[in-house]
Write a structure and sequence with these properties.
Layout lengths: L1 H15 L12 H4 L5 H31 L1 E8 L4 H10 L12 E3 H4 E7 L10 H5 L14 H32 L1 E3 L6 H36 L74 H6 L9 H10 L4 H4 L2 H4 L10 H5 L4 E8 L1 H8 L4 E8 L2 H39 L18
Antiparallel strand pairs: 1-6, 2-4, 3-5
C-alpha cells in the first residue's frame, strides 16, 4: 500500500513539476499573484519536460567528450646528456625538440674525409724517371698506330691527370672544411650521418663535374679548331708542288668518343680509334700495339680509352723494357710495381669521373658535434586522457553557461511549436512571441 502511494506521489511530482512557474511574493500574495491561464501553464510544463532531458543529455555529452579528449602536455628536460638524448629520441622521436645554442658548427670541427686513390696515381708509372724512358725525339716519324708514337705523351698526360685530380680533391676537401654546418636542433647520430653524407656527396659531384667539364672542353676546342698534333697523329701535310701551291692531304680526323664506323683496314693495328672516311698514309715502319693502350687522333683521346691493363701484366711490362730505355733499377723490380688488375675494365675516362678515387669515406665525430651544439634543453609532448577529476571540473565550469542557454532556447522552441500547433487548428494568423515564466509575452 505504501509502495503504491510512493509511486503515485512520484508520478504526481513529475507531472506537476514546473521549473518555469512564475515567482510569487508571500507577503503580497493577494496583490501580486496573477491568474495563470490553462495554456500558459501547459506551455510551462512542456518547457520543463524538454528542458530537463536536454540539460541532462548535454551534461553527459560534455562530460563524455572531456574524458575522451586527449590532453597534450609539454615536458622539458634541462640536463641533456648523450644517453638522455638517445632515450628521448627513441621514445619521443616525433615531438622531441632540442635547440642548439651554437647554430653554426664548422665541418672541420667534427668531419674528416679519407680518400683511397687509384694505385696508378701513386705508382712508379707516373714518375718522371719512368716517363722520360719513353721519350723519343723522332716519335712523329713512327707509324700513326705505333705505341712508340704517343707513348711518352700518354704517360705524361696520365701523370698530369693524376696531379690535376689530386689538386681538385684537396681543394674540395678544403672547401668542405671551410663551410659551416647549420645546426638548428640537435640531431641523432644516424640523421647527422645522413645529412653529412649528402653534403659530402654534393661536393664530390661538383668536383667530378669540374674535371670532366674541363677535359671535355679541351677535346671540343681541339676538335672544332682542327689543331694539328706535333706527332702527326691526326693530320699529315704532304708538300707537293701542284700549280705552284701546296696540297694538303688529310690522313684522318676524329675522336674516339665520336666513333662512326671505325676504319677496319688490314693495315690498321689493334686498339686504333678514329672516325671513318680518311685513309691512312702508308709507312714502312715497324708497328707495335700495347695491351690496354689505344692510339687515337690525339694522344689524349688514346689515353682516355686506356684501361691500364698493361700495368697489371708483367709480360706487357717486360715487352716495354725490351723496346724502351727503362732504367735498370726499374727493370729488376717490375713485379713490385704491378698494380691490382682492373676487374671492371674501366677506362681512364671512367676513372676521371671518380677523380681516380677508389674509396671515399667520411668520418664524423658525433661527440664533438654534440658538445658544440650545446643544447640548452630538450622538450617533448606527451598526450594523456583527461582524468575524471579534470572532467568534473570542466563540467562544473560549463554548467552555468549551459543552464543559461537552455533557459533561453527551450521556452522559445516550445512557444514556436505551440504557435504552429494553434495555427494548424485555427488556420489563423500566428503572432510569434516568447512567454515569460509568469505567462506574459515578452515581445510580439
Amino acid at each position: 500500500m505504501n509502495f503504491k502511494y510512493l509511486l503515485r506521489w512520484v508520478y504526481e511530482q513529475i507531472r506537476d513539476y514546473n521549473l518555469f512557474a512564475p515567482e510569487t511574493d508571500d507577503d503580497n500574495n493577494d496583490e501580486n499573484k496573477l491568474e495563470e491561464s490553462g495554456t500558459a501553464l501547459r506551455n510551462q510544463k512542456y518547457t520543463t519536460r524538454l528542458y530537463v532531458p536536454l540539460v541532462i543529455v548535454s551534461l553527459y555529452i560534455i562530460f563524455y567528450i572531456s574524458l575522451l579528449q586527449p590532453h597534450p602536455r609539454e615536458i622539458i628536460i634541462l640536463d641533456v646528456t648523450p644517453n638522455v638524448f638517445d632515450q628521448l629520441q627513441h621514445k619521443y622521436i616525433k615531438t622531441l625538440s632540442c635547440p642548439c645554442r651554437e647554430v653554426k658548427i664548422p665541418y672541420k670541427a667534427f668531419v674528416s674525409t679519407m680518400m683511397t686513390l687509384h694505385p696508378i696515381c701513386s705508382s712508379v708509372f707516373v714518375s718522371d724517371e719512368w716517363i722520360e724512358a719513353f721519350y723519343l725525339a723522332n716519335a712523329s716519324e713512327y707509324f700513326l698506330g705505333d705505341f712508340a708514337n704517343s707513348a711518352y705523351s700518354q704517360h705524361k698526360i696520365l701523370a698530369s691527370l693524376c696531379t690535376l685530380c689530386n689538386n681538385i680533391l684537396k681543394q674540395t676537401e678544403l672547401n668542405l672544411r671551410n663551410e659551416d654546418f647549420i645546426a638548428i636542433e640537435l640531431s641523432s647520430e644516424e640523421r647527422l650521418k645522413s645529412e653529412i653524407t649528402s653534403v659530402v656527396g654534393g661536393f664530390r659531384s661538383s668536383a667530378t663535374t669540374q674535371i670532366t667539364s674541363y677535359i671535355d672542353y679541351i677535346r671540343t676546342v681541339t676538335q672544332s679548331n682542327r689543331f694539328i698534333s706535333r706527332l702527326n697523329t691526326n693530320m699529315v701535310i704532304l708538300g707537293e708542288k701542284v700549280n705552284s701551291s701546296l696540297k694538303g692531304s688529310y690522313v684522318f680526323h676524329g675522336f674516339w668518343s665520336s666513333l662512326g664506323d671505325p676504319f677496319n683496314s688490314a693495315n690498321m693495328p689493334e686498339n686504333f680509334v678514329c672516325d671513318k672516311g680518311y685513309k691512312p698514309v702508308s709507312y714502312d715502319i715497324f708497328r707495335k700495339s700495347v695491351k690496354g693502350f689505344a692510339q687515337g687522333c690525339y694522344p689524349l683521346e688514346g689515353l682516355l680509352a686506356n684501361n691500364l691493363e698493361c700495368f697489371s701484366d708483367i709480360n706487357c711490362l717486360n715487352m716495354l723494357t725490351n723496346h724502351f730505355s727503362i732504367p735498370e733499377k726499374m727493370r729488376t723490380k717490375l713485379s713490385q710495381f704491378l698494380i691490382p688488375k682492373n676487374e671492371e675494365n674501366n677506362t681512364i675516362y671512367d676513372h676521371l669521373r671518380t677523380l681516380f678515387v677508389n674509396k671515399w669515406s667520411t668520418n664524423i665525430d658525433y661527440s664533438i658535434y654534440f658538445d658544440t651544439c650545446a643544447a640548452s634543453h630538450c622538450a617533448y609532448t606527451i598526450t594523456k586522457q583527461t582524468e575524471f577529476a579534470s572532467a568534473v571540473t570542466i563540467l562544473i565550469g560549463l554548467y552555468g553557461g549551459l543552464i543559461a542557454i537552455c533557459r533561453l532556447v527551450v521556452p522559445w522552441i516550445i512557444n514556436v511549436l505551440m504557435k504552429f500547433k494553434h495555427r494548424s487548428r485555427s488556420n489563423g494568423i500566428i503572432n510569434f512571441g516568447i512567454i515569460s515564466n509568469d505567462g506574459k509575452k515578452l515581445f510580439i
